[in-house]
Design goal:
This is Extracellular solute-binding protein family 1. By secondary structure, this protein is of the alpha/beta class. It folds into 2 domains: 51-179 and 331-390, D-Maltodextrin-Binding Protein, domain 2 (3-Layer(aba) Sandwich), CATH 3.40.190.10; 181-329 and 406-460, Periplasmic binding protein-like II (D-Maltodextrin-Binding Protein, domain 2). The chain has helices spanning 22-30, 75-91, 105-118, 133-137, 187-192, 203-214, 233-242, 259-273, 283-288, 302-308, 343-356, 359-369, 382-390, 393-399, 414-428, 434-460, and strands spanning 51-52, 65-71, 95-101, 120-121, 124-128, 166-167, 170-171, 174-179, 181-186, 217-218, 221-222, 226-228, 248-249, 252-253, 277-279, 294-298, 313-316, 328-329, 331-337, 404-405. The strands form 9 sheets. A 3-stranded antiparallel beta sheet has the order 5-19-8. Strands 16-9-17 form a 3-stranded antiparallel beta sheet. Helix 2 (75-91) runs antiparallel to helix 12 and helix 15 (414-428) runs antiparallel to helix 16. It is globular, with a radius of gyration of 22 Å.
Length: 464
């Protein structure tokens, strides 16, 4: 049973570190000798001069090869992680794996960059989506393919999440704390309004439901229909796909091709002309406190939403435009091994990653945190399937995985994401002309793509 809180961090909180030139400049600023993106043979070995960051080893585990995991988790999530690592430590006598909570993804990025500069690094890190690319270019991450065997390899994971950890045909990050966005709705209020209990499939369908919901009261005021936020790009990725478009494909920016204008025009009407939407400081809080009838949030937030809500919560695939079940972007983070002076520690760190991919351990992480059961066999275990029967909302999150895919290439970097967020905010919050906003965004993203296209091409290359 999911009976604990999910501590969530914005997937777009790692600001600035992937700004213009950051990925290309990191290697120089930390004095890295190799370059993983160059395809040179030395990119897969150890790095002389880089030592392990300080690690405290309990007396019971001294005399082993020590591995330190800098984890971007706090609260319950970190507790679940440390429980799993203790299980690993007690399962064998050669390796000690310890974890240090470094806060958020943004905190990890800042601390890891400083560690590279000081040449004192952890052995395992956990970055969101493509944020590992800058460190791959700095030759800071070890390729993992040589560690794969019949029991642990990319085939054990949900396949939609595997390519995001690969560059030039090699694997540098394996899936771990993964998620997708979901549409959440107040099933109790839907019933009161006489609306279908299953919720809407599309945005136009939800707009037709809005007048009935608006007749209901919340704290003496009309129930609000839908809260948006000024950093909704992740959800915007699902929206532009639902309208048949893309932010980019390969190294080509596509926001001015029509679908984005259609989507923003529709949302402009929904928010400012029909008064069904509004910009909120915390959409999830507005939803769980009953102010709004629905919201969208990560699947990893489901446990928190269920805990905080005093009404029956419904969850649904992200809404489409003219059809149900659009493609959705994958979110969350994966595990990577850091290169340093010790091949033994790299080997030991890889064994920790393999341990985390065992179905029982993946299920424990999934049931304890709310992240997806990223290992295929984990979703088939009795304790997981029993939980789906008890709390069907979690099955909705799993079922939507089939619609998930990598975000468009231009969103791999924070600076373009900032541009997209700003453009969406101009329409969502200020009611600006969508056509002007889209035209300006195309120019901004074209400039960013000129800076990032070489990196994108290197990552997408199949390698040797």
């Amino acid at each position: 049973m999911f009976n604990i809180l999910q501590t969530s961090t914005s997937r777009r909180s790692v600001l600035g570190l992937m700004g213009a030139g950051a990925a290309l400049g990191l290697a120089g600023c930390v004095g890295v000798g190799g370059d993983a993106s160059s395809g040179k043979d030395d990119a897969g070995g150890v790095r002389k001069g880089f030592k392990q960051a300080p690690v405290k080893v309990p007396e019971a585990y001294k005399g082993r090869t020590n591995v330190i995991f800098w984890a971007p988790f706090t609260g319950i999530n970190f507790q679940v992680l440390t429980t799993l690592l203790k299980k690993f430590n007690d399962s064998q006598k050669d390796i000690y794996a310890g974890a240090e909570s470094v806060g958020s993804y943004a905190d990890l990025a800042q601390k890891f960059t400083a560690a590279l500069q000081a040449k004192q690094v952890p052995d395992i890190v956990c970055f969101p989506e493509h944020r590992w690319i800058q460190y791959w270019q700095a030759d800071a991450l070890a390729p993992l393919d040589s560690y794969f065997d019949d029991e642990w390899n990319n085939k054990v994971y949900m396949q939609q999440f595997v390519p995001e950890g690969q560059a030039q045909g090699k694997t540098y990050q394996v899936p771990f704390a993964r998620s997708t966005p979901l549409f959440y709705y107040n099933k109790t209020r839907f019933k009161e309004a006489g609306l279908p209990e299953k919720g809407p499939d599309t945005w136009p369908e939800y707009a037709k439901m809005a007048p009935d919901l608006a007749k209901l009261k919340s704290a003496g005021k009309a129930l609000k229909i839908f809260p948006f936020k000024n950093d909704d790009e992740w959800y915007g990725q699902a929206h532009i796909w639902a309208w048949g478009g893309r932010f980019s494909e390969g190294t080509n920016v596509l926001v001015d091709k029509g679908p984005m204008l259609e989507w923003l025009t529709w949302k402009n009407t929904f928010i400012h002309k029909q008064n069904y939407g509004y910009v909120a400081k915390s959409p999830v809080t507005d939803f769980t406190t009953g102010i709004s009838a629905a919201t969208h949030a990560s699947t990893a937030t489901l446990a928190q939403i269920l805990h905080d809500s005093k009404f029956e919560v419904g969850s649904h695939f992200m809404l489409g435009n003219d059809s149900a079940g659009p493609k959705v972007p994958i979110g969350g983070s994966g595990l990577a091994v850091v290169k340093a002076e010790s091949k033994d520690r790299q080997d030991a760190a890889a064994k920790v990653l393999k341990f985390m991919a065992e179905p029982e351990n993946c299920a424990q992480w999934h049931l304890g945190t709310g992240y997806l059961p990223i290992v295929l066999k984990a979703a088939e275990l009795p304790e997981v399937t029993a939980n789906y029967k008890k709390i069907p909302n979690y099955k909705v999150a799993l079922d939507q995985v089939k619609n998930s895919r990598q975000s468009d290439t231009i969103t791999w970097f924070d600076a373009p994401v900032d541009d997209i967020n700003r453009a969406m905010g101009l329409v969502y919050g200020d009611g600006k002309d969508p056509k002007t906003v889209v035209t300006d965004l195309q120019k901004q993203l074209d400039e960013k793509m000129a800076k990032y296209k070489d990196t994108i091409s290197k990552v997408m290359a199949k390698g040797n």
